[in-house]
Amino acid sequence: MGCKVEKKIILKYYGKKIFLIKDYKTKSIGMFNQIVNKFITIAAFGMEIYMKANITLIPGDGIGPEIIREAKKVLEAVADAYDHEFIFTEIDMGGCSIDKYGVPLTDEAIEIAKKSDAVLLGAVGGDVGNSRWYDVAPNLRPEAGLLKIRKELGLFANLRPATLYPKLVSACPLKEEIAERGFDMVIVRELTGGLYFGERYTKEIDGVKTAVDTLVYNENEIRRVAKVAFDIAMTREKKKVTSVDKANVLDSSRLWRSVVEEVAKEYPEVTLEHMLVDNAAMQLVKEPRQFDVMLTENMFGDILSDEASMIAGSIGMLPSASLGEGSFGLYEPSHGSAPDIAGKNKANPLATILSAAMLLRHSLGLLEEAQKIEDTIDDVLDSNYRTWDLKSPGIKVLKTSQMGDIVSEWLTEATAIDKGKIDIDDIY
Hints:
By secondary structure, this protein is α/β, with parallel strands linked by helices.
């Protein structure tokens, strides 16, 4: 059925330019992309699309400020190359917010995020065993800010693409014959239900200290995230959804399986299969190529997406998106704050840059621009440029800032060539 929310697109025509002023919402995730595709058709007849968008940046803790700086650099290159206008506003979240305000996320920061078109996050948190940020109640720790912003922004679906780039096969821990076949999957994780949000307590029962965590899902929560997974599958070549559960044991999983099957009837073009979570964990290392879109609940998704990041060669390569109803989303790398290398200019910014590409695609509908970022990263990897986490014989190790520079510069050059502004012979 989808969420019925009032939407609008404002267009202003100036000669051969279409100025797309970002003031819209859509009935469902992916709908805006369909709308924008129509304007891309117009562009093919000599008219170009221009966009003005507000983007909230959350640098966060540890390496967060370093990788956000490089992603912003690439977004600015995109804006310059395509004549868009991106307005950036920074807010604090995590340990840095605790230091300034005593809480991991202020209400004022949330309001700023709500007024933007999308949010790009670096990382939050520190060293759990050696940080004052964790000598407090759980709701006051850095990661609580992330849970709060997801809830306040209504972000219920987490998308984590996991792709093994051909040039990173050697970094994959799987057997060579498996890694060489490659894989390209998207894990869709439910984000606001399950064990992480159910009732919990620890108390003494009959003289024994007992902890209880409650796993709760209702059919509406399952249905809306299932629709996201099937919508994504419809845009992919395989058109396959693997729903992961523990239906042989858990009532919540049996409900999950039942609702997913109902949703599948609305997508006859998509193949649905069910897989128990323990088997899914094994299959990810046995034959990851079999997966296309993997749909699962909160805790299972948390674990499986980290497993997928490892077999992709480096967690520093994996972006993610947290989406709600409509086009708004929060985008972040799958890795953490890595306090051990913070400030050393060693962090891999590519996951954050790829998250920025997801922001352009899913929240702004800028499909060409998103693809240009991804293609540029492919070119950089093909030219044997890496950060230290992917170092190997024969490659060129770059610092964090250098990787951001080269992606920005190559994107600018490639776009200029595409638009006929410079001749390729002027570069080579």
